[in-house]
Automatic annotation (TrEMBL):
Keyword terms: Glycosidase, Hydrolase
Keyword flag Hydrolase: yes
Protein name as it appears in the record: Endoglucanase
Pfam families on file: Glyco_hydro_8 (PF01270)
Entries under InterPro entries matching the protein: 6-hairpin_glycosidase_sf (IPR008928), 6hp_glycosidase-like_sf (IPR012341), Glyco_hydro_8 (IPR002037)
GO term, biological process aspect, one: carbohydrate metabolic process
Gene Ontology MF terms in the entry: hydrolase activity, hydrolyzing O-glycosyl compounds
UniProt key word Hydrolase: yes
Annotated organism of origin: Lactobacillus gigeriorum DSM 23908 = CRBIP 24.85
Family: Belongs to the glycosyl hydrolase 8 (cellulase D) family.
């Protein structure tokens, strides 16, 4: 999805239709191979087909409103708008299932609802926690004006603003999984908090800006990528 979106941005920046044509081809492949037509949500991969129980598994970090809007704009396929609306609705339902407002890495989704997975579903024992996938959600929703997106983002930021130190991962009940900070978690929060500068969450914004003040790590690729994406958005 990020590759397709990058091609769209390249077409806009350099006014080259070659990029747009490649983006449309990729987007159409995603629609054909990575969408559950029963739930109107993205699947976790083209390997999670209708014969697999994972056909109903949702990776919450795949909720990318800006990218889905762009897919519609270049293809005029209104199914992308339905997917966008449905995925945001399921994310809001997940947010409301915990007092913390936190959202898990993975959830089981149906045509009418959604529920956080328990234990290891596909990736790790943290699949049902706010962990290495869900940490991207604040970044994915940053700058999105949709009512559901803002609701989800504000609940997440409200939780993090109450923590003395934002650490790497939490249970749905808000219990820290680790006692150390991680820029993979802090960078998306910093970007989301920047939407509310001089309104609310300024303390959270200030506490997380360390991600841009330190040198990029040459060891942790994931941290480095999320910090770089944050810097580019800023």
């Amino acid at each position: 999805m990020f590759i397709a979106y990058s091609l769209i941005l390249a077409a806009r920046r350099w006014h080259d239709e070659t990029y747009r044509h490649q983006a449309v081809k990729l987007i159409n492949d995603i629609m054909a191979k990575k969408v559950n037509n029963e739930t109107n949500c993205l699947t976790v991969g083209n390997w999670a087909d209708q014969d697999s129980k994972y056909y109903y598994l949702l990776r919450t970090s795949d909720c990318l409103p800006k990218e889905l809007t762009a897919f519609y704009q270049v293809t005029k396929d209104e199914r992308w708008l339905l997917i966008r609306k449905t995925m945001l609705k399921r994310m809001r339902q997940l947010s409301n299932q915990s007092k913390s407002g936190l959202i898990p890495d993975f959830a089981w989704v149906s045509s009418t609802g959604v529920k956080a997975v328990k234990g290891k579903a596909v990736n790790s024992k943290y699949d049902g926690d706010y962990a290495a996938n869900a940490c991207r959600i604040p970044m994915n929703l940053a700058g999105v004006k949709d009512r559901d997106a803002k609701y989800i983002s504000r609940r997440l930021l409200k939780f993090f603003s109450k923590q003395n130190t934002v650490t790497a991962g939490y249970t749905m009940a808000g219990k820290a999984l680790n006692d150390y900070q991680s820029r993979a978690f802090s960078a998306p929060i910093f970007l989301a908090a920047s939407d509310y500068r001089n309104q609310v969450f300024d303390s959270l914004f200030s506490s997380q800006k360390y991600v841009l003040l330190q040198k990029l790590t040459g060891i942790n690729y994931y941290d480095a990528v999320l910090v770089t994406l944050t810097a580019l958005e800023k």
